[in-house]
Amino acid sequence: MLPVFLLILIPLLSLFFFFFLTTSKSNSKAPKSYPLVGSFFAILATRDRQLQWFSEILVDSPSATFDLRRSYSKRQVFSGNPPVVQHILKSNFQNYEKGETFRSRLTYFLGHGIFNIDGESWKFQRQVASHEFSTKSLRKFVETVVNTELSDRLIPILSSAAKNGTVLDFQNILQSFWVRPGLLSPSLPQAKLALAFEDSVRISYGRLTASIPLIWKIKKFFNIGSEKSLKMAVSEVKESAMNIVKQKKQKLEQLGEKKSLSDELLSRFLSSGHVDEKFVADIVISFLIAGRDTTSAALTWYFWLLSQHPEVQSKVVKEIKEHSEEPA
C-alpha cells in the first residue's frame, strides 16, 4: 500500500516545487503563483479593477512586461513595452496566432472576423480595411460625418447638461456615436443593439478570462444564466449585422456599374468577391468592436487630461479656431 502512496505523492510534490521555483519574482507587485491554481486568488481579488491592476504591475516592472499564470498552467504575457508591442503586433504578427483557447471561447460571438482568425483570412481583412485609414478617407470622414455629429447631436446634449447642471457619463455619450445616427439625442434613449453588444462583449470576455471554464460550459449546455443571456445578445447583434450587410448589398446592386460607394469599408468587402453574407456580417461585428470602446475611452481620457491642463486646453481651442476660420 505504501509504494502506491509514494508513487502518487512524489509526482505531486515535484509539481508543487516546480511551480514555486518558477513563480515570477521580477517585481514586487507581480502576483504570486501557486500549484494548479496559478494566480487565481490575486485575479479574483482584483476582478473589479483588473485593468488598473495590470497597469500597476507593468509600471512597477523594469521591462514593462510580466507573466501571469492562470489555472492549470495556462499563461498570459502582458507588456507595455513599445518595442515588445511592435514586435508582436506589427513586425512578427504572423508568428503569434490566437490559439485554440481564444477561438473556442470567442467564435460564438466573433465568428470569422479579423479579431478571431489567423492566416490568409486575417491578411485579406487587414488589407481591405487598411484603405479606410488613408489620409483621404479620414479627411472625408471628418468632413461628412464628424461635423454633423458634433453640431447636431453632441453639442445639444452638452449644452442641455450645462444649462440644467446635469452630470453625464461622457464615455457612454461617446459610445452612442458608435451605433447609428438618431440614437444620440438629448433624451439619451438606450439602444437595443448597444445593450446587446455590451452584453455580448462582457460575457464573451468573461469566457476568455474564466479560471474554471467548466462553469460557463455547463451553463451553455443547460442554456442558463450568463450563457442564456449571451445567446440572446449575440442573436440580436448578428441579426443587426446581417441587416446592415443586406442593405448595403442591395444598394450596391442598385448602383450597378457606378460603384460610387466602393470607397466605403463595407462596400469594399462586398465588392471583393465575398458573397457569403454570414462571413461579411462577422467582419462587420469585428469592426464595430474596433471602433466602440477604443474611441470613446481615448476621447474621454483626452478631454479629462485637457480639463487638468488649462494651458493646453487654451492652445487647442486657439488652433481649432484658426483652422475653422473661413478664408478671406
Automatic annotation (TrEMBL):
Pfam families: p450 (PF00067)
Annotated keywords: Heme, Iron, Metal-binding, Monooxygenase, Oxidoreductase
GO MF annotations, alphabetized: heme binding; iron ion binding; monooxygenase activity; oxidoreductase activity, acting on paired donors, with incorporation or reduction of molecular oxygen
Cofactor (UniProt): heme
Matching Gene3D superfamilies: Cytochrome P450 (1.10.630.10)
Sections of the chain in a coiled coil: none
PANTHER family reported for this sequence: CYTOCHROME P450
Family indicated by similarity: Belongs to the cytochrome P450 family.
Protein name, entry field: Cytochrome p450 94a1
Species: Quercus suber (Cork oak)
Lineage of origin: Eukaryota, Viridiplantae, Streptophyta, Embryophyta, Tracheophyta
Gene label: CYP94A1_5
